[in-house]
Amino acid sequence: MKRRQSYVPVDDRDKEHICWWQERMNLCQKPTTKEMIKLLIPTNLLGLDPNLRHGSLRDGSLNAELLDAKRKFPREVLLCRIGEFYEACGFDACILVEFAGLNPMGGIRVNASPRAGCPVANLRQTLDNITQQGLSVCVMEEVQGAAPSKYRKDRFIAGHAHPGSPYIYGLAAADSDFEFPEPCPVVGISQSVRGYTFVSVLEMMRTYTVEDGLTEEALVTKLRSVQYQQLFLHRSLRGNSSGSVKWGSSGDGALLWAECKGKDVEWFDRDPVSFLLDKVKEMYDIEDQAEFREIARPSLKRPRPVYLGTASQAGILPVPEIPSLLKVLVPSDTTSLCVRYLRDLLLNPPPYATAAAIQECLKLMTSVKCSIPEFLCVSAAKLVKLIGAREVNHLEFSRIKHLAEDVLYMHENNSLRDIFHLLLEPTILASGLQLEAEQLVTDCKQLVDRISSVISCTGDPEQLINSYEHVPDDFFIDFESSWKGRVQRKHSEDFYADVDKKAAELNLAIVGDFLPVLARAKSLVRSCYGNGNGEICYVPDHQAVWFKGKGFMPLLWGSETPGEEEIKRLIPALDSKGKKVGDDWHTTGRVESAVMSYREAATKANFAVVKALRCLSDDVRTYLNTIIFISMFCVIAKAFFAHASEGKRRKWVFPVLGGEQEPLVFSGLLPYWLDSTQDFAIPNSFEMSSIFLLTGPNGGGKSSLLRSVCAATLLGLCGLMVPASKAVIPQLDSIMLRVVSQDSPSEGKSLFQMEMAELKTLLLETTRRSLVLVDELCKGTDVQKGTCILASVLENFDRLGCLGIVSTHLHGLLDMKLDTNNVVLKAMGTRKVLQGGLQPTWELIDGECRESLAFETAKGEGVTEEILDRAKELYEEMQKKHLSQSKPMVDGNEVRHESARNLKDLEQEVLRICKDQLNGTFVLSSTCYFVGARQQPPPFTSNHSCVYILQRPDGKFYVGQTDNLSGRIASHRTSMGLKQAPFLYLPVSNKSVACQLETALITQLTQQGLNLVNKVDQRHKHFGISPVEAPF
């Protein structure tokens, strides 16, 4: 049958919202949902067709009432309580079927508007399913109590469910806990000449924060580290400061544009704070007079927030295949609230003074000997939401009392009092509330007293549930367990007494009316006159106590027969609709009246208890700031105790928190993801006062070292323990870790473009007090130009005087004449293995490493021998071609090495330099010894210190020293192109002399124009350690 067309005009104020709902309908994928959508029309906010069954919108109808509610909250799913179901229609019904896994009510009929719903018992799960999709729900409840049969029950908007803000109506009467999700703020972003401004409003906490002067990278980090309810963008973002550039995929704002692309955002042009506060009040149905508290974020004397790349690569934010830093800070059973606090602490490092207080607190925690509180963790947002709505049940009040008692215990215990005072500072920072210790203690005592005066304690004899021999216990349990044991009896004495009175009357009615009948039925079973049976039963579905039996009727009625009068008074048991339940179910008018009276008394008592709880909510509301503070206090205390325990188990240490000018020092630094008590790990030690240029083979541990340094430094800046045996952390203003990038097809950017975008942020944000950790920059372009860009970056970092590590495989950097003064060459070490070749040691050493171990790495990952053999042949050919075409240069002039074609030509000059350097202090050989191609040094060089010179095929030279010349020559000759390399060596008395002569030779031979590969050892001032270096 063809459906009649509807000509209902669209209200202009609804058009924008109807379009929004149509967009949501277009995203639905289930076939059932798509069939339901065909029955909708876009002429009203419900999507109902008035010409279909259940689609009428006439005045006075339920749909008209729903439409009025929908206009108040046009972008929320509307659920309406109808009897034992919550129902939705039109657009909302489609959402329930698509995302909540429900079926259309009555199926899909072409002549009826779509409807869907869930039983009352499944409301919470349905709301969770919808809010997890980023949608909000408005819930309408029925007014309690009976309504005349001819009239529809009155309904009212009872509350809302939003992502991060659940529906809480009726929780005061609940006897179970309800888990709250992490709060989701409403976020607004604007831009000014100072940078970006990030405004965050939390409806549950009634708070807001304003952070300005942010960089684009810092802003995007904040967006990705929090799940927000709604994002609003100020129109200042559409152009730069001059208003001449549109917001888009390139130029300023490109990173933010990519983050917001495809998301549901709204634009505004008012003052960000006032606009967002008004918008939140509108979205959450909050009265206009409601006040929101600003949480100040001190920006002075503290490090800057951690950027997105750093947070991701250091394991703070979850990234596949990056070890989680949060999981190693505390035991695995630590509550999520504690882990969330530590995450926020790392993302926003505290002021230096607060970090010092945290460290001192943790030190005391590791040495405390007395027992500590359990520290029950309760979300502050949950408590604020429940208290504000007067929906706190007895369980939550007990938790608030426990929180206050834990704080008081910390203050009153002499062994914990110092920890108590130290915990105040991070709690003040996290909560934004300035509470003095004395006021906090006073408030906690008053809270404990007030709650204790109302809430009933466990085992209170006045809270016992009624029990009578002949009345089923389940009946009393069902009607009394939901309110007894919650508040002390004195607060609802009249209602308690009435329930006890009605229970006694019910017992008398059952004993008087049912017991004689039951006795007769049992007597018939024992006699030979019948097979009757019977029992007194509680029927939960009908909330009644009935007699169930058959075969107990007497065959002959007589006045002398016991129970006959009572049997005559029996009537059939009826359900709520007046229908007979069954032939076996019986009751009496007296029993039915007693049951009804008892149920009414129990319901009134329940209401009285809930009223007492809500009055207590009003009383403790004056302590709301204190409740927020102690909830944060206990979360932080539990997190720190857990960290102290785990750090001590892992043998981590407390770093020295230094000043601005001190170097960054680590001894025995380990990767944070390795447990030194269980895993084998190579510790590294260094002192950093400038930039390290780090080279090393593939798989040698460069990236792991950078992550380890980043994580350990960040932990130290936050006052936490670090995975090392000793550490000194200076007052850094930022930590920036940049690891290998990937291309971004969604932004239309190649790998190199992403690298350069990240580089721009690094260059803009780095100061002399920054720690910059850069891993393999410029991999996305050709080697020569990438090398030059990286060289320029290295010079820039050197001029700034910042700390950091720049790791690279661009070994051309090592041969360039850079304008740097403080760059230190570091390498990840290698060692010779029995099978020949080299193997990484994962140890940080002085010097450089030009061997990538690319072929060995490929072989280890399963690349075939055929491919690798051919690759080696091509590499040899390329090296020969390169060496034949290369022209060594020194200071821009070509160096010709014909005079030094034979190493023996350098013998006299080497001897002269060495004799001048030692000045007769040590006995020195008068002869240098030569080792030609395919030759080995004699045995006397074993365990004998030597200084040596190697000549490469390209005419360059390398100066070194060793205590094992045979092993060192063998190691050099395993490198490509050095198999036939000749050596010139000079035996000396000890290793210290060898180091001294090595430095002198490097310095003076370079000054004479000899083209040397290694130059770093010119800076040696102490000679007791022999660095392992490679001339390739």
UniProtKB/TrEMBL annotation:
<dbReference type="GO" id="GO:0043504">
    <property type="term" value="P:mitochondrial DNA repair"/>
</dbReference>
<dbReference type="GO" id="GO:0005634">
    <property type="term" value="C:nucleus"/>
</dbReference>
<dbReference type="InterPro" id="IPR053276">
    <property type="entry name" value="MtDNA_mismatch_repair_MutS"/>
</dbReference>
<dbReference type="InterPro" id="IPR007695">
    <property type="entry name" value="DNA_mismatch_repair_MutS-lik_N"/>
</dbReference>
<keyword id="KW-0547">Nucleotide-binding</keyword>
<feature type="domain" description="DNA mismatch repair proteins mutS family">
    <location>
        <begin position="770"/>
        <end position="786"/>
    </location>
</feature>
<protein>
    <recommendedName>
        <fullName>DNA mismatch repair proteins mutS family domain-containing protein</fullName>
    </recommendedName>
</protein>
<dbReference type="GO" id="GO:0030983">
    <property type="term" value="F:mismatched DNA binding"/>
</dbReference>
<dbReference type="Pfam" id="PF01624">
    <property type="entry name" value="MutS_I"/>
</dbReference>
<dbReference type="InterPro" id="IPR017261">
    <property type="entry name" value="DNA_mismatch_repair_MutS/MSH"/>
</dbReference>
<dbReference type="InterPro" id="IPR035901">
    <property type="entry name" value="GIY-YIG_endonuc_sf"/>
</dbReference>
<dbReference type="GO" id="GO:0003690">
    <property type="term" value="F:double-stranded DNA binding"/>
</dbReference>
<dbReference type="InterPro" id="IPR016151">
    <property type="entry name" value="DNA_mismatch_repair_MutS_N"/>
</dbReference>
<keyword id="KW-0067">ATP-binding</keyword>
<keyword id="KW-0238">DNA-binding</keyword>
<dbReference type="GO" id="GO:0005739">
    <property type="term" value="C:mitochondrion"/>
</dbReference>
<dbReference type="InterPro" id="IPR027417">
    <property type="entry name" value="P-loop_NTPase"/>
</dbReference>
<dbReference type="GO" id="GO:0005524">
    <property type="term" value="F:ATP binding"/>
</dbReference>
<dbReference type="InterPro" id="IPR000432">
    <property type="entry name" value="DNA_mismatch_repair_MutS_C"/>
</dbReference>
<keyword id="KW-0227">DNA damage</keyword>
<dbReference type="Pfam" id="PF00488">
    <property type="entry name" value="MutS_V"/>
</dbReference>
<dbReference type="GO" id="GO:0006298">
    <property type="term" value="P:mismatch repair"/>
</dbReference>
